[in-house]
Amino acid sequence: MILEGILAVLLSPVCLLLITLGVIVGIIFGSIPGLSATMAVVLFLPMSFGMEPINGISLLIGLYIGGISGGLISAILLKIPGTPSSIATVFDGGPMAEKGEAGKALGVGILYSFIGGIISVIALIFISPSLADFALKFTPVEYFSIAIFSLTIIASLSGDSMINGLISGLFGILMAMIGIAPIDGYMRFTFGIHQLTSGFDILTVLIGLFAVSDIIRFSHQKAAGQKGQVTEYKIKGFGVSFKEFKEQFWNMIRSSLIGLGVGILPGVGGSTSSILAYSATKNASKYPEKFGTGIIDGIIASEASNNATTGGALIPLLTLGIPGNTVTAMLLGGLLIHGISPGPLIFKNNGVVMYAIFTALIVANIAMLIFEYAGLKYFVKLMDIPKNILFPIIMVLCAVGAFGGNSRVFDVWSIFIFGVVGYLFIKANISSTPFIIGFILGPIAEVNLRRALMASDGSLLPFLTRPISALFLIGAVVSVALVFKKKLKEKDRAVPDAV
C-alpha cells in the first residue's frame, strides 16, 4: 500500500506535471500582493473535480505549497507580504533588500521554506495521529489563553517605546472589532456605513500598512524618481555559509516546531506562527537589537515556521476531518468530491491516496525549492526598476489584489486609508507590527473568550484550573515580566552613558 501510493505519484508524468504546474502558479499567486494560496486553490478546485483523485489532490497540494512560499518574494523585494503568512519576513527581509542583499535574503528564505516544509511533512507522516489527539484537548479556554500569550509579543516587538507599541496594538484590536460581532451578531462601530458590516479584510490592512505607506514615504523623497539600486544577486548556493547554518540550526528547529504546533490548531494560521517564531527567536537571541535592521535570523524564523504550518494544518484535516485553515478547508472539499473521507479510518480505507498525498507534499516542496531558486536572479531584477515606474505598477497590483479578495471597491479605498495610517505611524515613530498582531489575534481572543464563558456559565475558573490554559497564562505573565526587566536594564545602562 505504501509503495503503491508513492509510485502513483513518482511514476505518473501527468501527476508530476500537475504538481509542478500547481507550484509555479502558487508561487505567482503568493508573490502578488492581495492574491494568496487560498485564491489559487479556489480557482483551480473545480478543475480538479474531473481528474483522477490522486492527480486532482496533487494539483491542489502544489498550489498550497507554492502559494505559501511565494509570499516571501514580495515580502523581501517590495516590503509587502504576498500572503498573511509572510508578515514577519518583511521585518528583516525588507531591510536586507534595501542594503543590497536581496539575493541573500531570498536565498535564505527559499532554503528555510523548504526545510520547514519537509520537517512538517515528516511530522505528518510519522506522528500525525498522536498530534491530532493532543489538539483535540484544546477547548475555547485553551485557545483564548494561547491568544493572550501571543498578544504579549506586542511587548517585545514594540520598538524603543513600550507605550507607542501598546497604542499601536490596541488600535489594531479596535480596527478588528469593526463589523458584525461574533456569537451574537451585534453591529459594532459601523456608524451606519454598510460597507463596514464585514469589517476590514486582513489582506487590505497588510497591503495598506506595508505597501501604500511605503510608497507615500518614498514619494516624499528626492530619490523617488531616480533609478533603482543595482542589487547583487550572485550568491554562493543559497547565501548561507556552513558556519551560519550551524549557528541558525536551533532557530530553524524551534521555528519549524512552532509552525507545526500552530498549524495543528484550527483557525490560528500561518500569520500567527510566523510572528510567534520571530518573537521567540528575537527573545532567545544574543543580539535582539539587530532584529528589524536586516539579519537572516528573522527571515529564517518566519519562513521555517510558516511553511511548517502547511503540514501541521493537514494533520487535523487528514486524521480528524477538521480543516486547520482556509486552504485546508478547500482541500477538504476536494477530498470529499473525490470520495475520500478524512478521519481516523482514512489509512485503512484510502491508504494509497494518503501515501500519494505524502509523496506529493515532498515533490511539491522540492519543486518549490528548484523553481524559486531558478528564478532568483529574475526576482532580484525588480530592485533595479526605477522607482517612478515600479511604484505605479505596485499600486495597480495592490488595488487589483484588494478588489480580487471580496470583489468590493471598498477594499480598494481601504488600502489607501491604512496606507495613510501606516505613514502616520512612520512619522510618529510608532511600530506597525503591534497593530498587525492586535488585528490578527484580537478576534481569536474575543471569540474564544465568549465561547468559554458561555460554556462555563460566566465562570473564569476554567482558565486557571485547566492545565494547558494555566500554563499559557503563566507564560504570558513571565513573557511580559522578562520584557519589562530587559527594558529596565537597558534604561539603567543608558543613564551612566548619558552622564
From TrEMBL:
Signal peptide range in chain numbering: none
Keywords in alphabetical order: Membrane, Transmembrane, Transmembrane helix
Domain DUF112: 16-437
One Pfam family hit: TctA
Organism superkingdom: Bacteria
Segments traversing the membrane: 6-29, 57-78, 105-128, 140-158, 165-183, 189-212, 257-280, 313-340, 352-373, 385-403, 415-444, 464-484
Entries under InterPro entries matching the protein: DUF112_TM (IPR002823)
Name the UniProt record assigns to this protein: Tat pathway signal protein
Organism annotation: Geosporobacter ferrireducens
